[in-house]
Amino acid sequence: MIRGHYLGLVQALLIIVPLTIAVRASNNMLMTTIPLLARYDFHFSNTLIGLLSALTALMTFLSSGLINSRLRSCCRRLALIASSVAYTVVYPLFWLSSPLTIWLLSAIAGFTLGFLMPNIITSASLLPDRRARERLLNIYTLSLSISLILGPAIESLILKHYSLKESFLFFTIFPILALAIAPLIRFPEERGGDSLITVNNVLSNPGFLTAVLNIATYNVVFSFLMAFGGIYARDSFGLSYSMVETLFSLFFITSFLGRLYLSIKPAERLWPLMSSAVLLTVIGVTMIGLTSSSLIYIIALLLLGIPHGITYPLSVVAISRAFKPQHRNAANSLFFSFMMLIGIATPTVTGYVADLIGIRNTFIVLILPVIIALILLRRYVGSVDKPLT
User: At what angle do helices 101-124 and 328-357 cross, to 10 degrees?
Assistant: First the structure.
């Protein structure tokens, strides 16, 4: 039995890790580079940049929450492969984008992501042994961090010699890799009506609410940071495109360390780590809001990387504890769609606010929703805050 669990873990890792790196590295490149392209090539305002980021998240929400969550395994496999093809085709077209076509390309890229990421998460949660499953989920999130370090680091080197638009051509190798691997991932077996779970049942599950509120404590800040952090660094400190991407890479290094810790020592109790992550988030955001020093900004980014590293894996672990294997697709898809709702609301509202009071002051405004989410989280976390037995 132990040998079988070990073999299953290794087989899953060989598929999930490279696929996760390929999808997340390319997607993060879109998140951080499209705002730079929109500002400095197309001269968009903060409000328009926020709307552009929100559009991408909206399309992901539609495909993940309204479509993927309702599909059976056989249909989701086809949707995954089709999305991989579309993602590979649309990616290099950003090289030819204009102030008009960038809206369409961003929408298509966001739509494909709603089929890719939830199915990878679900595949990573299918091992029957809880300890092996949570270890795999933590390694999955660790591979997310690896991709988030490699992506900006590679783009930083590319931008020393090529333009923002040309960098999309180099990064197309990642969607091509994802297309080659995607058909290999596992999907849960379905047995008639046993696989069905209503949206209301998912939404009312305390474990699901724990996952959503926990990710909300950080994703509000993260969505704003991805949309405007690079612009803030360039406008406030005069940094080059290459250096901006280097800062993102440093941010994801501390995120990686947080996930490495959870991969080595999976969390038994969730609340202590969740509350600590919120504390670090508030400290990091306050540092950015109260200083105009580039050094303090870099230190704050390093600090904010830690909660980024541990918040997401704690949420996916909460879902894996709260739902049966055949119900995790619906739960993961709806969870991912809620993440996208945050990605829709945050840049839409904060882009407008940033035009009114500036990007630096907007960081301070974000502390309030973080605290509110933490208070609500304390109410539900007890349902999944249980040690391994």
Answer: 140
* Beta-carbon-side half-sphere exposure of residue 55 (alpha carbons within 13 Å): 17
Q: Enter the tokens of residue 172.
A: 């197309």
| Structural tokens at position 220 | 């509000």
3-state secondary structure 191-249: CHHHHCCCHHHHHCCHHHHHHHHHHHHHHHHHHHHHHHHHHHHHHHHCCCHHHHHHHHH
Both structure tokens of 166: 């040309």
Give the containing element (helix H, strand E) for 36: helix 2-40
Q: Phi, psi at residue 270, to the nearest 5°?
A: -95, -40
The CA distance from 233 to 249, in Å, is 14
Q: Up-side HSE of residue 88: CA atoms within 13 Å toward CB?
A: 17
For CA atoms 219, 282, 378, 259, give the dihedral sign: positive
Could you identify the residue written with the tokens 């980014």? 301
What is the rounded end-to-end Cα distance, in angstroms, of the chain? 17
Q: Which of 60, 66, 2 is nearest to 30 (CA)?
A: 60
Q: What Cα–Cα distance (Å) separates residue 338 from each residue in 72, 98, 276? A: 21, 30, 22
Kindly report, residue by residue over 57-114, the tens digit of the pLDDT: 889 888 887 888 788 878 888 999 999 999 999 999 999 999 999 999 999 999 999 8
- Residue that has been written with the tokens 């619906």 in this structure: 330
Quote the pTM value. Answer: 0.76
Token pair belonging to 283 = 């400290």
Helices and strands in the chain, H and E counts: 15, 0
Q: What are phi and psi of 133, to 5 degrees?
A: -65, -45
